[in-house]
Design a protein that fits this description.
With 145 residues, the protein is mainly alpha-helical. The chain has helices spanning 7-12, 31-37, 46-62, 68-101, 112-118, 135-138; strands spanning 104-109, 123-128. Strands 1-2 form a two-stranded antiparallel sheet.
C-alpha cells in the first residue's frame, strides 16, 4: 500500500515523495491547514504579503520565542507613552490658555468700616480668579478624539 500524499501535495495535485519537506507540517488528513496557508492574494497585495513573511521570519530568527510580537509590543508601548505625553501637553496648554483668558477683577472698598480696617477710605486691589489645574483631572475627554 502506498503512503498517503501530504495535504500540501494533494492540494497542489502532485506526487508526494518520502523526502517531501512539507509532509511533516501538513499531514494527509488536514487539508484545512493547507487551505489557510494558501489563501488567494490579489496581485497588488503580493509584494506586501512577501515583505510581511520575510519580516516575520527575520524577527523569528532574532527572537525564536516571541518573534515579531516583541517589536509589536514595543511599538504599542511607545504609542501609549506618546499619547500620554500628548494629553499632558494639551492639558498644560489649555491650563495656560485658561489662565491667560481669566479676567482680572478690581475690588473697590468705600465704606467707613472697611477704611478703618484697610487703613484708608478707598483702596483698589486686583484679584485674578483662577487656580492651577491638575491636567490629569481636566482632560479625559481628549482621549476620546
Amino acid at each position: 500500500m502506498a503512503p498517503l500524499a501530504c495535504a500540501a501535495c494533494r492540494f497542489q495535485r502532485k506526487k508526494c515523495s518520502a523526502q517531501c519537506l512539507l509532509a511533516p507540517h501538513f499531514p494527509p488528513d488536514d487539508l484545512q491547514r493547507v487551505m489557510i496557508v494558501n489563501q488567494d492574494i490579489e496581485p497588488e497585495q503580493r509584494a506586501d504579503a512577501v515583505n510581511s513573511l520575510v519580516y516575520e521570519a527575520s524577527a523569528r530568527v532574532e527572537d525564536p520565542v516571541y518573534g515579531c510580537t516583541r517589536a509589536t509590543h514595543q511599538l504599542q508601548k511607545r504609542i501609549a507613552d506618546l499619547e500620554s505625553q500628548l494629553a499632558a501637553t494639551q492639558a498644560e496648554l489649555l491650563n495656560m490658555r485658561f489662565i491667560a483668558e481669566t479676567p482680572v477683577y478690581t475690588l473697590t472698598t468705600e465704606s467707613h468700616d472697611a477704611g478703618h480696617v484697610l487703613g484708608s477710605t478707598s483702596q483698589q486691589s486686583e484679584y485674578t480668579m483662577c487656580e492651577k489645574v491638575d491636567p490629569t483631572l481636566l482632560w479625559e475627554p481628549l482621549w476620546q478624539l
